[in-house]
Design a protein that fits this description.
Helices cover about 20% and strands about 20% of the residues. It is built from 6 helices and 15 strands. It has a 9-stranded mixed beta sheet, with helices on one face. The relative contact order is 0.17.
Length: about 350
């Protein structure tokens, strides 16, 4: 076979192959408009439902409403002296709502540092404590016990121990952040639980498995108008069985602890007569405060703070006040109760 004939045969083969491939593609377009099976149709073993195209932008909780606070002229002190993990800007929605209702909110780092703690709290109706990472001294705890015994109100926001990753110009690292005021809250029968919570049920979280829903357990002024509260970094409250503390909110069914995967409806908010303990801090932030019924719940908490009595004279700590000191608004001691997987019985 001559060289020219070989070249001719190869060229003919290439032309035929190109025509066959092009014809097949054109035929597919003419018949079905596309080549192959459309995405998400008739494909065996496709992704779970939550990853389908129609679920890429799922519905989220509406961010509406207004933080309503009982009117008056009360004074609230916000603790900022114990390594508290918040920025003042985080609390602006709550401070604005309290101001609009006629109240005054002061951060403790703006108070005269020469004042004794009992002098700082005197004349205040409420004390707000948000995620302190340092403990309260025996003297401070004694003053707060005197404050609640005289009718003052305290609200504590706490989160379970978690690792946070930080980045910088020369690298990053992980730090562990823990709630530091169990030595204060234990004397009222409550403390923060050991693990964060999560819920993978779409109807039980706010578009994030760690953003859990909580619902009221029984009737309480704190739950009025707030049927669903979202906790974006929620934990659970450990309540001493022999204490006067009562569970106000609990996580919805399907909730589990993040590390041990124990299922249960965990207490997320508990209270005594004059102290409320909330196992989350994010719901105060502007990005979360208007989710679900959060703004109603925050308004109820602020109304609780401003409704406290404001003792003009408050006893200070004495030399006998120590770590095991008693309280007139809760049990004494530092014992704890391990949470169980049982569903809590609704309060009556």
């Amino acid at each position: 076979m001559t060289e020219g004939r070989v070249v001719t045969l190869v060229a003919t083969y290439i032309v035929v192959a190109v025509l066959l491939v092009g014809g097949t593609a054109l035929l597919g377009l003419a018949v079905g408009g596309t080549v192959g099976t459309p995405d998400g149709v008739g494909i065996e073993g496709q992704s779970p439902a939550q990853f389908q195209p129609d679920r890429v932008n799922p519905e989220v909780d509406p961010e509406t409403g207004r933080i309503a606070v009982e009117r008056g002229d009360a004074r609230i002190l916000v603790d900022a002296d114990h390594g508290n993990q918040f920025e003042e800007s985080d609390l602006e929605p709550a401070v604005e709502a309290a101001f609009r209702a006629g109240h005054t909110v002061t951060f403790s780092d703006a108070v005269d540092s020469d004042q004794q703690y009992n002098q700082t709290l005197a004349g205040r109706s409420g004390l707000l404590v948000v995620q302190p990472t340092e403990g309260f001294s025996a003297g401070e705890r004694a003053v707060i016990r005197n404050f609640t015994a005289e009718g003052g109100h305290v609200v504590v926001f706490a989160e379970p121990t978690q690792s946070r990753v930080s980045t910088g110009l020369f690298g990053g690292g992980a730090t562990t952040v823990s709630f530091g005021a169990n030595n204060l809250t234990e004397s009222y029968g409550v403390r923060i639980g050991a693990e964060p919570l999560f819920n993978v049920e779409d109807s039980a979280n706010d578009n994030n498995f760690k953003s859990i829903y909580s619902s009221p357990r029984g009737d309480d002024p704190l739950t009025e108008g707030a049927e669903t509260v979202t906790f974006d970094a929620g934990g659970y409250v450990v309540v001493r069985r022999t204490s006067d503390a009562e569970v106000v909110y609990q996580s919805v069914p399907g909730t589990r602890t993040l590390d041990s995967r124990r299922a249960g409806q965990y207490p997320t908010v508990a209270r005594t007569e004059n102290l409320v303990f909330v196992a989350d801090t994010t719901l105060l932030e502007r990005s979360e405060v208007y989710d679900a019924d959060n703004e109603v719940f925050v308004g109820n908490l602020l109304s609780f703070l401003v409704s406290g009595d404001a003792p003009e004279r408050l006893p200070g700590a004495t030399e006998t006040d120590g770590d095991g000191g008693g309280t007139n608004d809760g049990p004494t001691g530092n014992g704890t109760v391990t949470p169980t997987n049982e569903t809590p019985t609704p309060s009556t």
